[in-house]
C-alpha cells in the first residue's frame, strides 16, 4: 500500500495584503501529478484544509475540484480528510454523503451514541486488513473524562485503537494536535500553541502498534519524539516569515509485507520569503541592503519581503523612504517591523504583533510583572492555567 500524507494547506490564506490562490493552485497541480506518478492508494489530509472556518467560494471550488480530479484520474485512490482547528468541522463534514461516492471520507465532528463517544465512526476501512483512525482536532468537550487535556487525548486514541485492532491487523491513524517534543517555528503566530493547556500533548497518545500516525497542526515536517512512524508532514507553503527556512514537502509511506518505509517528497514553493536584515538595523543601513536587491517587474512569483528596522525615534517618513528604494525591485513588501532598543529598567512594550503571538497565560504573566514588578509564583500560574482550561471546555 502506497500512502501520501499531507496537512495544513490553509487554502484561502491572505499573506498580509496578498492572496495566495496562485501558489495553492501550483501546489494542487503538483500534488495531482504526484498521486498519478506514484500510483497512490491512499491520500491522508490531516487538518487545516482551509485557513478560515468560513472559507471563500474560490477556496472551496479549488478544494472540491482537486478532489474530483484526483479521484477521477485514480479510480482506486481513497481519500481521508480530517478537520483541523482552523476548519469548521461541521462545514467540512457536511458533503460526506456526496464525497463518499468519490471514495472520499471526511471526519470533522465527534458524534455520540447516547452519552458515549461513537468511536466506530472514526474507524475508516481502507482494505480488508487495514483501517485508518480518522480523528479530527479534538476540543476539551470531545474527550473522555481525564485529569488533563493530554491524558484525555491519550485515552481517546487508546480506546479507539483497542476497538479497531479487533478487526484490522494494520491500523493507521490521523490527528491534528501539538505533540510535546515537536519543534515549533520561533515567533510563529500561525501555529502558536493552542490555549488552555491543549499544547504539548505527551507522545504516549501514539500507540506503537499503529503502522503510521499522520499528524497536522505544526508546519515543519518532522518526526515526533524520535518515533519514525509518528510524523508531521508540514505545510505546503510557509505560513509566516518565521517559517521561511522550512523545507516544504509531503510524506510518502509504503507498507509492504508488514514493513513500513517512509520518504519525504520535496515541494519547491513558487514564491520565496525574504527577511532583511537578519537582525534589526538602523534605517540607513537597511536602505543600503534594499538597494542591492535585483531589479525587475513585480509578478505573482515575486518574493514577499519583510524588513526589520531598529528605531530610536519615531520617523514618519520611514515607509515612504523604503518604498522609494524598492521602486523597480522585483519584490513585494509585506511587512515592516520597527524594533526599538530596550533600555535598562524599561518595561517591554507589547505590540500588536506580540499580542497576536501571545497565549492567555503569557499575557497574564506579563500583566503580573507590570503590576507587582516580579515573576508570577508557580502556584498562581497553576491556578490561572486551571481557569483557562475550564473556560475553554
Which descriptors would you attach to this protein?
10 helices; 393 residues; Purple Acid Phosphatase, chain A, domain 2; six-stranded mixed sheet
How are the SSEs ordered, and which strands pair?
Blueprint: E1 2-6, E2 14-15, E3 18-19, H1 21-37, E4 42-46, H2 57-73, E5 78-82, H3 89-93, H4 96-99, E6 104-107, E7 112-113, E8 116-117, E9 123-125, E10 130-134, H5 149-164, E11 170-176, E12 212-216, E13 222-224, E14 227-232, E15 249-256, E16 259-266, E17 273-281, H6 283-291, E18 304-311, H7 318-326, E19 332-340, H8 352-357, H9 360-372, H10 378-391
Parallel strand pairs: 1-4, 4-5, 5-6, 10-11, 11-12, 12-14, 17-18, 18-19
Antiparallel strand pairs: 1-15, 2-3, 7-8, 9-10, 13-14, 15-16
Helix pairs in contact: 1-2, 6-7, 9-10
3D structure, described in words:
It is built from ten helices and 19 strands. Helix 1 runs parallel beside helix 2. By secondary structure, it is of the alpha/beta class. Helices cover 28% and strands 25% of the residues. A six-stranded mixed β-sheet has the order 6-5-4-1-15-16. Mean pLDDT is 88; it is low at 193-197. It has helices at residues 21-37, 57-73, 89-93, 96-99, 149-164, 283-291, 318-326, 352-357, 360-372, 378-391; strands at residues 2-6, 14-15, 18-19, 42-46, 78-82, 104-107, 112-113, 116-117, 123-125, 130-134, 170-176, 212-216, 222-224, 227-232, 249-256, 259-266, 273-281, 304-311, 332-340. The protein has two domains: 2-266, Metallo-dependent phosphatases (Purple Acid Phosphatase, chain A, domain 2), CATH 3.60.21.10; 273-391, no CATH class.
Amino acid at each position: 500500500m502506497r500512502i501520501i500524507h499531507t496537512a495544513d494547506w490553509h487554502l484561502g490564506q491572505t499573506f498580509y495584503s496578498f492572496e495566495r490562490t496562485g501558489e495553492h493552485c501550483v501546489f494542487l497541480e503538483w500534488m495531482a501529478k504526484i498521486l498519478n506518478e506514484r500510483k497512490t492508494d491512499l491520500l491522508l489530509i490531516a487538518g487545516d484544509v482551509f485557513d478560515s472556518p468560513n472559507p471563500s467560494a474560490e477556496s472551496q471550488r479549488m478544494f472540491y475540484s482537486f478532489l474530483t480530479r484526483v479521484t477521477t484520474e485514480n479510480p482506486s485512490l481513497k481519500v481521508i480528510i480530517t478537520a483541523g482547528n482552523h476548519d469548521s468541522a461541521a462545514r467540512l463534514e457536511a458533503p460526506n454523503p456526496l464525497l463518499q461516492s468519490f471514495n472520499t471520507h471526511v471526519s470533522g465532528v465527534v458524534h455520540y451514541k447516547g452519552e458515549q463517544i461513537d468511536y466506530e465512526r472514526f474507524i475508516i476501512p481502507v482494505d480488508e486488513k487495514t483501517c485508518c483512525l480518522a480523528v479530527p482536532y479534538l476540543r476539551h468537550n470531545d474527550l473522555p473524562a481525564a485529569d488533563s487535556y493530554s491524558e484525555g487525548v491519550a485515552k481517546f486514541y487508546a480506546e479507539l485503537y483497542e476497538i479497531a485492532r479487533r478487526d484490522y491487523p494494520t491500523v493507521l491513524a490521523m490527528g491534528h494536535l501539538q505533540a510535546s517534543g515537536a519543534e515549533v517555528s520561533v515567533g510563529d503566530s500561525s501555529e502558536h500553541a493552542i490555549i488552555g493547556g491543549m499544547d504539548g500533548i505527551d507522545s504516549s497518545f501514539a500507540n506503537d502498534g499503529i503502522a503510521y500516525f499522520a499528524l497536522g497542526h505544526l508546519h515543519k515536517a518532522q518526526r515526533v519524539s524520535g518515533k519514525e512512524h509518528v510524523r508531521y508532514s508540514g505545510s505546503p507553503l510557509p505560513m509566516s516569515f518565521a517559517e521561511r527556512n522550512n523545507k516544504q514537502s509531503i510524506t510518502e509511506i509504503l507498507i509492504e509485507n508488514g514493513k513500513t518505509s517512509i520518504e519525504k517528497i520535496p515541494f519547491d514553493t513558487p514564491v520565496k520569503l525574504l527577511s532583511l536584515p537578519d537582525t534589526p538595523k538602523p534605517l540607513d543601513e537597511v536602505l543600503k541592503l534594499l538597494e542591492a536587491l535585483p531589479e525587475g517587474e513585480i509578478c505573482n512569483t515575486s518574493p514577499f519581503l519583510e524588513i526589520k528596522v531598529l528605531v530610536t525615534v519615531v520617523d514618519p517618513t520611514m515607509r515612504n523612504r523604503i518604498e522609494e528604494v524598492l521602486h523597480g525591485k522585483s519584490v513585494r513588501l509585506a511587512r515592516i517591523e520597527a524594533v526599538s532598543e530596550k533600555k535598562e529598567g524599561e518595561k517591554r512594550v507589547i505590540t500588536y504583533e506580540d499580542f497576536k503571538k501571545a497565549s492567555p497565560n503569557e499575557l497574564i504573566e506579563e500583566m503580573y510583572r507590570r503590576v507587582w514588578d516580579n515573576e508570577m509564583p508557580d502556584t498562581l500560574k497553576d491556578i490561572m492555567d486551571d481557569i483557562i482550561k475550564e473556560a475553554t471546555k
